[in-house]
UniProtKB/TrEMBL annotation:
Highest taxon, organism lineage: Bacteria
Protein name, UniProt field: DUF5996 family protein
InterPro entries given in the database record: DUF5996 (IPR046038)
Pfam families: DUF5996
Length: 311
């Protein structure tokens, strides 16, 4: 198996757009049925040995819970309950509307009753169209879907290695269904004072200073896959700091902030792709941490070891 297989943005547009909406359908169920965590850590998906999962959710006083899994090996959606019941259906050949209907039926079949407050896409061009009416997005190429999961899984392991180098507060490595990226975030203890007009989702996600590292498959503004990092709030002079490797660069965003970017294709051509990505993440982190005045000596954690004797 190739590390970081080819994933050209234009080659799987239909499948990507359909999968993104499938993921948002399931993600909104996760949002509705999971206990809320700080910084919305309860909401994203996690990786499994066959796809992505919501993890168990919906615990009741009777002890009931359920889980929804995408299986990108057999290309099925699987709904299971703690009582042992299961319902599943194939992912290929479905529009978003049909997927939404099949999932609703599968949940009912295993005895799950969950209310999604807003069954519409989030922050997508068709955000005003209900999932139940979307017949437009109906492409599912099993090879592309499997490759999407393989790339996520490989990046996940690199992000785990990067996360291990910091002993301070760190998020899980998780896959965001709203933006379709995978990321891990390091936090400082500094509280961020947001102005009153900032929305509640953003206020909670960025209530502390953060430096996030991740990967996304591209979007219309940047139509190619890439590794990325950002610091929020952005300290003065961030984009003047050097990045490694040479292929990395600072990209100005519409908001006026900057994103550290390392193109996926440049990494694929490197002698040590994994090493290139780790070097990039560390250089972007140091740029943000030093600019913002983080205490690096306290929370640095080489090779995931905090106790040198135990190590």
């Amino acid at each position: 198996m190739e590390l970081f297989p080819s994933m050209p943005y234009a080659d799987w547009t239909g499948t990507r757009e359909t999968l993104h909406r499938f993921a948002q359908v399931v993600g909104k169920i996760r949002l509705a049925a999971s206990p809320r965590r700080n910084h919305w850590w309860n909401v994203p998906f996690h990786l499994t040995g066959r796809g992505i999962t919501t993890r168990p959710m919906g615990l009741t006083e009777q002890g009931d819970f359920f889980c929804v899994d995408f299986d990108f090996t057999d290309h099925r959606l699987v709904v299971t309950s703690g009582a042992g019941s299961e319902a599943s259906f194939p992912l290929h050949g479905l529009s978003v509307a049909a997927f939404y209907g099949r999932l609703t039926g599968a949940l009912a079949q295993v005895g799950v009753d969950v209310l999604v407050e807003r069954p519409y896409p989030f922050d997508l061009p068709d955000a005003r169209r209900p999932f139940a009416e979307d017949e437009e997005h109906c492409t599912y190429d099993p090879a592309a879907a499997h490759r999407y999961w393989v790339v996520l899984s490989q990046v996940n392991l690199v992000l785990e290695a990067y996360a291990a180098r910091w002993a301070g507060k760190t998020s899980p490595v998780h896959h965001f269904w709203h933006t379709f990226d995978i990321a891990v975030t390091r936090f400082s203890d500094t509280v961020v004072a947001h102005p009153p007009e900032v929305d509640a989702v953003t206020r909670e996600a960025y209530s502390r200073e953060v430096i996030s590292a991740g990967f996304w498959f591209g979007d219309p503004d940047y139509p190619e896959p890439a590794f990325y990092s950002y610091t929020a709030p952005e300290p003065a002079g961030l984009a003047t700091w050097p990045l490694r490797p040479e292929a990395a660069f600072w990209q100005a965003r519409k908001s006026g902030s900057h994103l550290a970017v390392l193109p996926y294709e440049r990494v694929r051509a490197a002698a040590s792709p994994r090493g290139e990505v780790l070097a990039f993440y560390e250089s972007a982190f140091l740029a943000g941490a030093r600019s913002a005045g983080w205490s690096l000596a306290v929370d640095s954690c080489p090779d995931g070891i905090t106790d040198v004797v135990a190590g």
